[in-house]
Amino acid sequence: MRFGKTLTALQVIKECDIRRTLILTHRPVVDKGWFEDYEKIFYDRPEFLYGSKNYGASLNGCEQVFANSATGSYIYFASIQDMRGSELVGGKFAKNEEIFNINWDLIIIDEAHEGTQTELGKAVLSKCRKENTRVLHLSGTPFNLMDDFKEDEIYTWDYVMEQRAKAEWDKIHQGDPNPYSVLPKLSIYTYNLGKLYPEYADADIAFNFREFFRVDKEGYFIHEANIKQFLDLLTKEDTDSNYPYSTEEYRQNFRHSLWMIPGVKEAKALSKLLQEHPVFSQFAIANVAGDGDEEEEEKEALKKVEKAIGPNPEDSYSITLSCGRLTTGVSVKPWTACFMLSGSFNTAASTYMQTIFRVQTPAVIGGKQKEECFVFDFAPDRTLKVIAETAKISSKAGKTTNNDREILGEFLNFCPIIGFEGSQMKVYNTEKMLGQLKKAYIERVVKNGFEDS
């Protein structure tokens, strides 16, 4: 989740002089990021190559350097999707035999929470792994992996650790430049759309985004009037308003944002309404959700976003609409806000956290350091549940001596959650948050019966 996993892994390879490294990932679009980080770490090691289908050397070129020099080493990047189509693991195509046959010293599974837990994913890793191969799993949200490892096999560096280090640096290292100063602080703002539109409550008494944004067969919103009203609410000019585009100052702060939408058709319909809106028509709209059966590669989606932002992000405005693309393994530096307009009370914490941390990428825009970034969630109970789950998971990652409430309190210290209902503002502390969450669970049990999980 942009906490330096690739740079750290590459530094390990360099310091340990690991000669053959294979990077496997379910997200081929991160190839570029790995290559760029490789150039930062191995700039002084010309005998150390990087290879992939898109960047650096070919696999044959890498192997030649390895064979012809005692110090010749390389890192090769491969897509799990491509690998699992190989005949050697039950696929239909005669390909990738060379990758499977090489005696790898180290295999790095990037974004290890994705695509590696299936039978095909496990088959790819098993076939690549030899007797002495070491395996490093990298993940910003390892919620589905924690039980597979012992505590001494897990190393954690997370948002709270980074922000704590940033806050304490000057006290401990007086006079030295703070290496953490470039890392933006994240804040989460919640708005209860369920109070404004109670007719869209789902079976969990949560706001039903899919119903709110539902489209007909022709691709038009069924509740178009409500959606237009919602867009007007976001932009209504009012110095007392707490909505993200209600003042010129807010619009300057949120020039470039990521909006999560329930589906492809919904994103297409919203794109049209935004382009017709008196305020949002000033924004370039990058719809990367796709169009019907047309599947857009992530790298093409990234190009579309970069085109919308343009070469001078300090002078432009853009909104990216997504229903999943560009929410993991990709950095769009000008993004300063994420709008959560999809999902439900039961949204997976891993999906949620991967998505919101897209906007925390460090950046210098127009000569100014990005110091803050924001999440706007319109389903407050969902926000509280995910953050509580995240704090609890963190306690398993080498922090078992800490109590969940203390961990949650520290998270809220560095990532405040501010709830708005009308003009009323509520800053959550641990007790308020757990109290609201308990209330939400009780409401669900009362409505759904005691079999509710």
UniProtKB/TrEMBL annotation:
Helicase ATP-binding domain boundaries: 1-160
One MF annotation (Gene Ontology) recorded for this entry: ATP binding
Alphabetical keyword list: ATP-binding, Helicase, Hydrolase, Nucleotide-binding
Coiled coil (UniProt feature): none
Signal peptide: none
One Pfam family, short name: ResIII
Protein name stated in the entry: Superfamily II DNA or RNA helicase
Record organism: Treponema berlinense
